[in-house]
Specification:
heterodimer, A: 112 residues, mainly beta, 5-stranded antiparallel β-sheet, 0% helix, 55% strand, globular, B: 112 residues, 7-stranded mixed β-sheet, 11 strands
Chain lengths: 112, 112
Amino acid sequence: ILNVEQSPQSLHVQEGDSTNFTCSFPSSNFYALHWYRWETAKSPEALFVMTLNGDEKKKGRISATLNTKEGYSYLYIKGSQPEDSATYLCAFRSGATNKLIFGTGTLLAVQP
Amino acid sequence: NAGVTQTPKFRVLKTGQSMTLLCAQDMNHEYMYWYRQDPGMGLRLIHYSVGEGTTAKGEVPDGYNVSRLKKQNFLLGLESAAPSQTSVYFCASSTQSGGEQYFGPGTRLTVT
């Protein structure tokens, strides 16, 4: 059974704070690691798809890093804004399957 | 482009009733997926398809059937609904098996 774990489960920060969360996944047979942003009452939207060890991707104030050898990825948000409030999901795909295994997400609440 | 659409948005069924959820995408994607979302759990894959006329089981396929008769449509059927199938169902599609997935708006199903 492939396990994808995210921490923390939830996070409350003040506007302007920088924050980061973690996704842990199996380190063997890696194919891809996805990050999605999921706002309440909407559907998940892709942020990043990462495939190479050491990969670092950036979109505005959000960035992500990937370590496939030790099986983790970090998502960073610089200067959080209330509109960043959402659940952030990571999903792992091994080389053996066509399927994504999702973590349970980190719920971020940014207070003005 | 409408992207990924799902019909219906909400449905209430009695135990033992049947229904079909429709997912349609207009992006010419090969891969389509059905997930369910339950509180405290990540998105769990029910069934998926790697192309027209093909389907495969995901993580939680029991009690569901699917069909992909046309490339743009992926149908999820419940032959005899059970209260354990109360959930929010999301459809997604992608161009390739490791690529980012595009999600529909979800269908909230309640089985009483």
